Amino acid sequence: MHIDVVELSRLQFAMTAMYHFLFVPLTLGLSILVAIMETVYVMTNRPIWRQMTKFWGSLFGINFVLGVATGITMEFQFGMNWSYYSHYVGDIFGAPLAIEGLMAFFLEATFVGLFFFGWDRMSKVAHMVVTWLVALGSNLSALWILIANGWMQNPVGAQFNPDTMRMEMTSFFDVLFNEVAQAKFVHTVSAGYVTASVFVMGVAAWYILKGRHIELARRSITVASAFGLAASLSVVVLGDESGYSASHTQKMKLASLEAMWDTEEAPAKFTLIGIPDREARETHYAVEIPWVMGLIGTRSLTQEIPGINDLVLQAQDKIRSGLIAYDALMTIRTERANTPPEVRAAFEEHSADLGFAFLLKRYVDDPRSATDAQIAMAADDTVPGVGPLFWAFRIMVGLGFSFIAVMIYFAVTANLRGMRFPRWALRLAVIIIPFPWIAAELGWFVAEFGRQPWTVDGVLPTVLSASRLSVADLLITLAGFVTLYTILFIIEMGLMIKYIRKGPIEDVEETEIWMARHEDRLKNNGGLAEPAE
């Protein structure tokens, strides 16, 4: 298999996945925010909260539809572009995807219709329940997708069957409660909550700057800043949990993120910034903080963290162990039921390292004929792109901490200063709208690029996972996807901008009457504060 086919397949899937993930965070977060707003409406019976629910719900609906359209394409790609991957691990990977479709997606899709068309046909409480079920469905969809992805990062609850030449599930419980999957789920949904909070705050801030829909905008900022503060704090805390998980499930990824070339004695230091040099195997101009990496990676000050150089040497040992398993596997395929017991015993003893032997397929058809130099090259392939990972991670973390600062400011201003937002802060809220998406995309880049050269970590190399397509096939479909997704992106942006400019158009008269009465009550109780300039 020519490597260009694999690289083009990776490029195509990366493009579709990262484009799809433009919609996912906003869907996750807006579903919860809309449910919170409707809950306040049910509790207070104030029309403005119903108006807020309908307005932000309409933006959720636009985003949801296009997110579904782009997500379906990705599932077809597993069969089209990654057929050997689907054959090899489909029994495990397919289970959570099927559950997501049958349980979470249908739940979400069914109740989305009731949300939009059930306002005048259901009681307030019943409609609120529907809205929360939409939010539950959205988040359950993310759960099952991330369980599938988490298994690719940490393939537990499964083993390779030499008779069928496929991975088979041994424990659904282990797959479900995979520590990587659980950490990824809570981290990802929290990032979605931050994205939606920043989006709501930015749009609301734009309304205040334009002098439109002031009361709706103020309340939206109040809800979004409080929810966003909790979510942004969660992102940092749960991101730390992902780092701790990587220290014993994906050691090479962790070492690459930190550009940690040599094993760090306890307590390991954290490299704040620097210039990683893969050729020289060192980080130039490194600014280091003592002890921090030890606390993040091991939760202690007494455990060392292995570096890239030592992990490469360990990979060489695993490749040689995997060659024993590979040799036994070839005998099993030939002899079948007549395979000597000692051959099966040898396979069972070394089967955990079989995937490392497959890394040699990039250099030689029969791994058993590999030279020491080829083994060394295959082991070196286990090091992902250190420079891009190093900086992507730091930009993502820096943005995460900046969101905490922004949310604290707006939450304090909304609750302690009577929602008197200075114009510079409102402009800032508008400017930062795209930044949570940048952080989210960088997070997925770190997770997926950091797993290379594996499709399933330690089990199946990416170079073996792709379908036997031609370069022309991939170029044509890649061009088609780029064209289609560009059109969808233009449609998405056009619809979102159109409805944001139009603003809330439902329940306007009832809301205005209620607000006039509310303002009279406030004036009679001490005056009404005017917005800050």
UniProtKB/TrEMBL annotation:
Superkingdom of the source species: Bacteria
State a GO cellular component annotated for this protein: cytochrome complex
Q: Name one GO molecular function term.
A: metal ion binding
Going by the UniProt record, its keywords in alphabetical order are:
Cell inner membrane, Cell membrane, Electron transport, Heme, Iron, Membrane, Metal-binding, Transmembrane, Transmembrane helix, Transport
Q: Which InterPro entries does the protein's record reference?
A: Cyt-d_ubiquinol_oxidase_su_1
Biological processes per GO annotation = aerobic electron transport chain
Provide the protein's localization: Cell inner membrane
The transmembrane segments are 20-43, 55-72, 92-117, 129-147, 185-209, 221-239, 391-412, 424-447, 467-491
Broad class of the protein's primary localization: membrane
Recorded topology in the membrane: Multi-pass membrane protein
Q: Is-annotated flag, keyword Signal?
A: no
User: What family name appears in the similarity comment?
Assistant: Belongs to the cytochrome ubiquinol oxidase subunit 1 family.
Q: Which PANTHER family match?
A: CYTOCHROME BD-I UBIQUINOL OXIDASE SUBUNIT 1, CYTOCHROME D UBIQUINOL OXIDASE
Provide the protein name.
Cytochrome bd oxidase subunit I
Q: Which organism is it from?
A: Pseudodonghicola xiamenensis
